[in-house]
Design a protein that fits this description.
heterodimer; A: alpha+beta; Uridine Diphospho-n-acetylenolpyruvylglucosamine Reductase, domain 2; Uridine Diphospho-n-acetylenolpyruvylglucosamine Reductase, domain 3; B: alpha+beta; 2 domains; 5 helices
């Protein structure tokens, strides 16, 4: 399948990309890894008049620790995060990066592209919500930093202006006794998940929870922060009963659409299981245990 | 500023040889390989980023060449299935696939070979879980995968259980 013709513009920096987008107008799109955009263009569901290519911008992909944050350049490929020892220190990041689609897609797709696309089935947004991450963008008015909770406005819609681009994702380093887990369920490796759950718990000791963040993916037009599920754990002794209450509250917060992946009710029930499993994994990690979780699919 | 669809000059090293050409920006890497360079060993299967038949190595990483514009690979290094054999002799991974019957119709095989190379470069002695994950982006509709896994274990020098 062959995309519609387009004008090609290679950006030398993100500022240069922003200037190009301003000049080219709304008919232009940004090419990062292309793992969502190129399939859409081949199906001619997208036919931008011009593309601004970010792939040749130097120093746009990096993972660094600085001032209590992990700084991830927007052009960092999922596989670079999967294989990064820095990212491994925050296990929920590895859970997510290591399970997105398949190896080939992870080698091209970027975290910035995923976050800026704001596909309701994207993997990164719920994880970044659970971590209280923030994103820095660059545009005609200069740079600005926005909490991820305010960044995504609707399905495929963010606060970014037409000539504004993501530069960096910043994840605060979780405190001691804080741990998270991300579990997504998908029918097979290359596809988007049916539902996903990201949790990050901060414990006082092995039993008492100081704080909990729970974000749900694929079950609404935007990722959903399950506030009542968080409240079921925050400042509480963690028991199997409180975990069940949190999973039930998360299920109640979900607002899934029926589609080829399953009915709304199926997705709610699936989500409850994922939240429960993610909580058990996060609590075990907070106790210092090594637990491996990631996307779940047939043949894994 | 380039006008709509103005051609772009790319320089891509393919199987060790520098190839320089003016192409339409919408040229997909797989078409660049098959149509412009006549390297038809890389197959187009689903053409929708699913099946992995079009897998090649770009700067040592396996990618689906139906979902990469050739302009993205400009300045890079591509290895296709044609780059594996040396002096008419199959490489170790190809030989293992042949010996273990890791293929039937063979359509998906170029993609599996390239993903296996990427896997073994990262994990020379992969666990079964690492093998499954390493080729999760490649689909085979003939073999049922058992002989493919056997071929990958054989190529890695892992004794059969």
């Amino acid at each position: 399948m062959i995309p519609h013709p387009f004008g090609y513009h290679r950006a030398t920096s993100l500022e240069d990309a922003s200037r190009l987008l301003s000049e080219l107008g709304e008919d232009s799109k940004v090419l990062a890894g292309g793992q969502s955009l190129i399939p859409l263009m081949k199906l001619r569901l997208a036919r931008p008049g011009s593309l601004v290519d970010l792939n040749h911008i130097p120093h746009a992909a990096y993972i660094e620790r600085q001032n209590g944050h992990l700084r991830i350049g927007a052009m960092t490929r999922h596989s670079e995060i999967e294989n990064s020892p820095h990212a491994a220190s925050i296990p929920i990041l590895h859970d997510c990066a290591a399970g997105i689609a398949d190896v080939q897609v992870r080698n091209m797709g970027t975290i910035g592209g995923s976050v800026a696309e704001a596909d309701p089935h994207g993997d990164w947004a719920p994880v970044l919500l659970a971590l209280d991450a923030e994103v820095e963008s660059v545009g005609p008015a200069g740079a600005r930093t926005v909490p991820i909770s305010q960044f995504i406005k609707d399905a495929f819609t963010t606060v970014l202006g037409p000539a504004e681009l993501l530069r960096e994702i910043r994840v605060p380093t979780p405190p001691a006794r804080s741990a998270g887990a991300f579990i997504a369920f998908k029918r097979c490796a290359p596809v988007y998940p049916t539902a996903s759950a990201a949790v990050q718990v901060t414990m006082v000791d092995d039993d008492f929870c100081r704080d909990a963040h729970i974000a749900l993916g694929c079950v609404g037009l935007t990722p959903i922060v399950a506030k009542e599920a968080e409240a079921a754990l925050r400042e509480q002794a963690i028991t199997s009963l409180s975990i069940e209450r949190a999973a039930d509250a998360a299920m109640a917060a979900a607002d899934p659409q029926p589609d080829l992946r399953g009915s709304a009710n199926y997705k709610r029930l699936l989500l409850r299981v994922l939240v429960r499993r993610a909580l058990h994994a996060a609590l075990a990690r907070a106790r210092g245990e090594t637990v491996e979780v990631s996307h779940e699919y047939v043949g894994r | 500023m380039s006008a709509a669809n103005a051609r772009v000059r790319v320089r891509i090293r393919v199987n060790g040889a520098l190839r320089e050409m003016e192409i339409e920006p919408r040229r997909l890497l797989v078409e660049f390989l098959r149509e412009d360079l006549d390297l038809t060993g890389t197959h187009i299967g689903c053409d929708t980023t699913f099946c992995g038949a079009c897998t090649v190595l770009l700067n040592g990483k396996n990618v689906k060449s139906c979902t990469v514009f050739a302009v993205q690979a400009d300045g890079g290094d591509v290895t296709t299935v044609e780059g594996l054999e040396k002096d008419g002799k199959l490489d170790a991974v190809q030989q293992a696939f042949a010996d273990c019957h890791g293929l039937q119709c063979g359509y998906c095989t170029p993609g599996f070979l390239m993903s296996t190379h990427a896997l073994l470069a990262r994990h020379p002695q992969p666990s079964d879980a690492q093998i499954r994950k390493g080729v999760a982006g490649n689909t085979c509709r003939c073999t049922g995968y058992q002989n493919i896994f056997k071929a990958i274990r054989t190529a890695a020098g892992i004794a059969e259980k």
